[in-house]
Specification:
Blueprint: E1 12-16, H1 20-32, E2 36-40, H2 43-52, E3 57-61, H3 69-80, E4 85-90, H4 101-106, E5 111-114, H5 119-129
Parallel strand pairs: 1-2, 1-3, 3-4, 4-5
Helix pairs in contact: 2-3
Length: 141
């Protein structure tokens, strides 16, 4: 069995999800790994946050009120350009809603994760996004 991926550097992450429980749980995982975490409950809040903070990575849900994750990715690309690292997450699979991760991938997100994701999947995606692990071909999880 492979060795667990361990982060070696903390980064500033903007965590965007309308579900407070998801934000709290994910925040705990990220902070335990040494990351600085800022939160936004939707895309509109995230756009405000990105303008006022130095953010290394955005971890965003795709289905949210006010401004969904797809529109957020579009706006982040306009504001910060193609070098901002973005991981799109979605729990749409099996809910009857369409899976928006392929659209996010087409917009150039760094990685996509399906909910629920494991701690190791999240760590791996972050490490790849910030260049601490080699990129692998993008696939839906």
């Amino acid at each position: 069995m492979g060795e667990a991926v361990r982060p070696t550097v903390g980064v500033t992450i903007l965590l965007v999800d309308d579900d407070e429980a998801v934000r709290q749980g994910t925040r705990r995982l990220l902070e335990a790994d040494g990351h600085r975490v800022l939160e936004a409950a939707d895309g509109a809040e995230a756009v405000k946050a990105i303008r006022g903070e130095s953010i290394d990575l955005v971890l965003t849900d795709l289905y949210m009120p006010n401004m969904d994750g797809i529109e957020l990715v579009r706006q982040l690309r306009q504001i910060r350009g193609p070098n901002l690292k973005i991981i799109a997450i979605s729990g749409a699979e099996g809910t009857g809603y369409p899976d928006m991760r392929p659209i996010a991938a087409a917009l150039g997100v760094t990685a996509t994760l399906g909910k629920p994701f494991t701690r190791e999947e999240l760590r791996h995606a972050i490490m790849q996004a910030v260049g601490l692990l080699p990129q692998t071909p993008r696939r839906q999880q």
